[in-house]
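Input record (one chain):
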Amino acid sequence: MNPAPTRQDAGQDHDQNLRRWEPHIHAFVELCPPDARGKGPLEGLRVGVKDIIDVAGVPTRNGSDTCQDAPPALHDAPVVAKLREAGAHIIGKTVTTEFAFTDPTACRNPHDLNRSPGGSSSGSGAAVAAGVVDIALGTQTAGSLCRPAAYCGVVGFKPSYGVIPTTGVTPLARSFDTVGIIARSVALAQKSFAVVAPYRAPPLDKTAQTAACGFWQTTALPDDDTLAGFQGATRALLDIGAAITTGPLTADVTPIVAAHRTIMNYEAFVAHGSLLAETKAVLLKPKFLAGLRMGAAISPDQIAQAKALVAEAKQAFWAGLEGVDTILTLPVPTGAPLIDGTTGFQDWLTPWTVFGGPLVCIPWGLDQLGRPLSVMLAARPGQDAQVLALAAKLETASPALPPPLLPKA
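The corresponding structure, as predicted from the sequence alone:
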């Protein structure tokens, strides 16, 4: 029997894995020098940090040509500092779409280099899927963390809005911006969240769970493989003792998505409107530039109406689920799309971001094209620990997901 690898050996293996995968997936914009790791619960874990989140000594370039001359950040964002204090090793800054908007990047999905890893936390999802890092920080303003997790076949955890501080994080839309965790397993997401969250409500003191199982009824429909995966996860919930109800989720997604985009574009303009100056605008990517211009044209009455709509929709949705602990749903209707100028389908995730509660994406095998499938658990704001605990149980029943194969040179 071979001896267990030492930490030094494990680090060398990770470095070799990075060198092998990075030329294919382009997940990083900059690597960090070795840092002095503290002792703690995350000792030895390797972390990627989305390049809208500050890491001391490294520029935050926000995936934008307008930030290529940015000076190195003076301090770690608090979420990064907590990871480092707990013993984690910050490997580097991962690729993001420009200012976490929707213009695609050069990053590729490790399971199929012809497919998108999703966005905007593209590099974070790809790096975890390739085994280059154990966990990675991402953000979600619409569907920017859960989508890469789902498409790349890894765990994605978006906490309740406001639970993880966004200090040191470049804003897109402050009403929705949420820092989250992409990880190899639910256990790693739980361990990381325990480190970075300043306060966590304990799980409910009950053994039985009640779960609603369904997904949004829109013009987008799940393909056969995705639907079969969802049905398998529903049966798995029954097997672990949950009392479930099934049926469509009751919310009119179209106006919620429209109102969210109004708020997002307006708040992006508030944060970054100075980039519309002629010398900067020519450097912006087309979708972000269009979003800023739309935001500049939004009136005070329009933003007030949009905020009222999402607040009312949020209240009505949770009121209609009285007595339900958790929702099992789908983050996306199909596996990762081919590289086609988009970062994937986000309209099923946008309402969940609006509703403000925690979300956990769990890999659920592969479809017939070899694309990772995913299911998602959602819960009310504040029930982060509860939904993670249920996700850990559900994960044990998930189909095996083969790791991506390193492309031949």
